[in-house]
Design brief:
disordered N terminus; Rossmann fold; two-stranded parallel sheet; NAD(P)-dependent oxidoreductase (chains A, B); NAD(P)-bd_dom_sf (chains A, B); Epimerase_deHydtase (chains A, B); 38% helix; homodimer
């Protein structure tokens, strides 16, 4: 056997990636767009969408550590989307799903041997800058959440920083804008994230060798208010879409 | 009645201040040092220390909203110290006392009409800079907690930012160093917070008109690694102690 053949074999093996919350709009889109690139396992909270039945999958409440832990065994990476995604979510709901659930997923990922966590964060972590139109917003500015939802996602970012520093797991937090098939109004005109740009930024995050990072994830919208320079520079993101193409000249 | 006499009366009325976790080392010291300045109410988790029996007090688990809420009725300010203060605390413990408990105290403070929250944070929010000796550390740098305890305190800071932005409550977060009667070793030599400096920084925070701030709270130790310039500039803190006075010449 030639020296190095084992290394080649490892490099060619597809990474095993768990997507939590895969029944959601983003998760189900990612499942289809990343299925060739990775060996996917999907996590669902309750119901299994018909279109995703043929994927390897698990059903569990992420707030129940014993239920979710087996899903994280022997994965290389986890894309953690499962959450209450509403900016109007109550404290009880974000406590259950976004705080306890996120801790459980990160801890199970560590115990299961994952080397990468991609955490779906949100612009709502910084929403008070937007409320006050203090633009542009850069990802390194102090957090100013606009909701308990935003607070709970900031918690996930901080927990990710700890897991990166303490355990050497690469953690990439993506502050996802407005994920839609197409932009549809003035707000999505600047905060849109297209499906293909979403898929790209997630695989760039999976492949990134950074130890930790927090990045805005939106398309290259001409009217954006949030900086994506570091997403481009540090994560290698090359957005292909711009919401402006969907609107006529003024 | 002269115009303005009501205003004068209000200005002369002592502020009503609740100290949570007042049985702790810091809380019991603050109770004695601030009793003349404010109308104090003390919160204890379980037992009432003998020395503090004559104070107005309540006993409650802060993780139980219904139990703690009455303590926050009609206070002007809360100094929130109650927490599991150990850097080695488990997730279950920080979840209970530091995350759920802090949410309950902030929310009850808001409902009770408080205009000020002084939140006892910690250097452990930034402990990974210290581990890596990336000094000096400034309070505005991105958080890098060294423990789940540090993560839980970063959560409290973020929640405070939200309460300030959303509800107009002034929230001052103090990253308290090592509170000791006297410094005793090389570490306390740079991170010491003396009892009288602690009392001062807390009343400065209560009196501050800032909408929000995060500040290191240590004495003016000649060998400090953490910046207190903004504590001095923005909070008006005038530290009187320096650990160096307790050590001989080298």
């Amino acid at each position: 056997m030639e020296a190095g053949s084992g290394v080649t074999a490892m490099a060619e093996r597809k990474k095993r990636v768990l997507i939590t919350g895969a029944a959601g709009r983003i998760g189900s889109e990612l499942a289809q767009r990343l299925r060739d690139r990775y060996e996917l396992r999907l996590h669902f909270h309750r119901t299994i969408p018909e279109a995703l039945r043929d994927f390897d999958h698990v059903v569990a409440d992420i707030a129940d550590f014993g239920a979710i832990a087996p899903a994280l065994r022997d994965v290389d990476a986890v894309v953690h989307l499962a959450a209450d995604p509403s900016p109007y979510a109550t404290w009880q709901s974000v406590l259950h799903s976004n705080i306890i659930g996120t801790y459980n997923v990160f801890e199970a990922a560590r115990l299961g041997g994952a080397r990468k966590i991609v955490f779906a964060s949100t612009n709502h972590v910084m929403g008070m800058y937007d409320r006050d139109q203090q633009w542009p917003v850069y990802s390194h500015q102090p957090v100013r959440p606009d909701s308990l939802y935003g607070v709970s996602k900031a918690f996930g970012e901080t927990l990710g920083r700890y897991y990166a520093d303490r355990y050497g797991i690469s953690v990439i937090c993506l502050r996802i804008g407005w994920f839609l098939p197409e932009p549809r109004d003035e707000i999505s005109r600047w905060m849109w994230l297209s499906p293909r740009d979403c898929a790209q930024v997630v695989w760039r995050a999976i492949e990134s060798e950074l130890d930790f990072g927090i990045f805005y994830a939106i398309s290259a919208n001409s009217r954006r208010h949030w900086d994506i320079t570091d997403t481009i520079e540090k994560l290698g993101y090359r957005p292909e879409d711009d919401a402006e193409r969907y609107f006529g000249p003024e």
